[in-house]
Write a structure and sequence with these properties.
Elements lengths: L2 E5 L2 E4 L4 E8 L7 E7 L6 E6 L5 E3 L7 E6 L4 E6 L8 E8 L14 E2 L3 E6 L1
Parallel strand pairs: 2-11
Antiparallel strand pairs: 1-3, 3-8, 4-5, 4-9, 5-6, 7-8, 9-10, 9-11
C-alpha cells in the first residue's frame, strides 16, 4: 500500500528557507508522477510543483525561481526546497503521487495518493 509521509515544515520569517521531505513506501516514487500542493485556510488547493519519471518539472508561477522539487531515488524520497519564503506561502503542504502512470497529466491536488501534510508558516 502506498504511503507518503511529509516532514520539514515549521515557522520562519520572510526571506527564510525550509526543506520539506516526503518519504514514500509501497512503490518506487521515481517511476511515477510526484508533486506538492498546498492549501491555506479558506483557499482552494494550489499546485506547487510536479515531477515525472523522466525528470520533467513544472512549477506554479507563484513559486518559480524560489522553490525546487527534487527526489532521491535511493531513499525513495521527494523534496521541496523553499527559499525566499513569503507570508503568502503560508499553508499546509502536501506530498502527492499519481500511481496511474509515470507522466503528469493532471495537477497534484487531484492525485489520488497524498500524505497528511506539514504546516509552513511564514511571518513578515
Amino acid at each position: 500500500q502506498a504511503q507518503l509521509v511529509e516532514s520539514g515544515g515549521g515557522s520562519v520569517q520572510a526571506g527564510g528557507s525550509l526543506r520539506l521531505s516526503c518519504a514514500t513506501s509501497g512503490y518506487t516514487s521515481s517511476d511515477y508522477c510526484m508533486g506538492w500542493f498546498r492549501q491555506a485556510p479558506g483557499k482552494q488547493r494550489e499546485e506547487v510543483a510536479r515531477i515525472d519519471k523522466s525528470g520533467r518539472i513544472k512549477y506554479a508561477d507563484s513559486v518559480k525561481g524560489r522553490f525546487t522539487i527534487s527526489q532521491d531515488n535511493a531513499k525513495n524520497t521527494l523534496y521541496l526546497q523553499m527559499n525566499s519564503l513569503k507570508p503568502e506561502d503560508t499553508a499546509m503542504y502536501y506530498c502527492a503521487a499519481d500511481l496511474t502512470g509515470g507522466y503528469c497529466y493532471r495537477p497534484p491536488p487531484s492525485f489520488p495518493h497524498r500524505g497528511q501534510g506539514t504546516q509552513v508558516t511564514v511571518s513578515s
